[in-house]
Design a protein that fits this description.
SH3 type barrels, alpha+beta, 7 strands, three-stranded antiparallel sheet
């Protein structure tokens, strides 16, 4: 069975952080033993201290538990794009207590693991296709049927469009109506298709039809 490099990276980063803290604790105990300091009582005191600290840091420990759950059940991986709580970006790292997200504006968000485990998280990159939504305002006196047919023709000319799900009137205003088009494309093409079609649609609708003289001359 072929291994997923993203899964390996997610687990590796998490375990490396966990191992670092474990090694520090055992190294400290080993140093005490080397210098002849009894560690039995120290471990007992450390255990009691751990209980007290645990009660004081319930939120932190819940983030630790959430981090373990994120790695075990893998609702998303390092490299996935996620959207949650107003934050959208690529998962850079899942640590013991928090996760790092590289946002679209090239800033980094640090989110407690408890929030990622306890809230709804959208993972768009799990699917190969994406829906592109287009909004096209038209003058209120513009023929709706003609406008819809023209918009559909423009969209279907683009070879990157896999399927046109729907085209219709999205909203009505005093001086205009809004056409909406929902179409499916390959996810990597979504942004470019949206920009290209918006420009093409504007150019096509702004273009005036030829006059009778121009048609006869042609």
């Amino acid at each position: 069975m072929k291994k997923s490099p993203r899964i390996d990276l997610t687990v590796a980063l998490f375990l490396s952080n966990a191992a670092r803290y474990i090694v520090l604790v055992f190294t400290f105990i080993a140093v005490l033993t080397t210098f002849g300091i009894a560690t039995t009582s120290f471990v007992a005191v450390l255990g009691a201290l751990g209980i007290a600290v645990g009660l004081a840091l319930q939120g932190t420990l819940s983030n630790l538990a959430a981090g373990i759950m994120l790695v075990v059940f893998r609702p998303f991986h390092v490299g996935d794009r996620i959207e949650t709580g107003g934050v959208a970006g690529m998962v850079r790292e899942i640590n013991l207590f928090f996760s790092e997200i590289d946002m679209d504006d090239n800033t980094r968000a640090v989110i407690p693991n408890g929030k990622l485990w306890g809230e709804i998280v959208r993972v768009p990159t799990r699917n190969d296709t994406a829906r592109v939504d287009l909004l096209v305002p038209r003058p209120v006196n513009d023929d709706v049927g003609v406008a819809i047919a023209k918009l559909k023709t423009i969209i279907e000319r683009d070879q990157r469009v896999m399927h046109v799900a729907a085209i219709g009137v999205e909203a009505l205003e005093a001086d205009k109506y809004i056409l909406a088009a929902h179409l499916w494309v390959n996810r990597p093409d979504a942004g470019k298709v949206r920009f290209d079609l918006n420009r093409t649609i504007k150019d096509e609708f702004d273009r005036k039809p030829p006059t009778l003289v121009e048609r006869r001359a042609g």
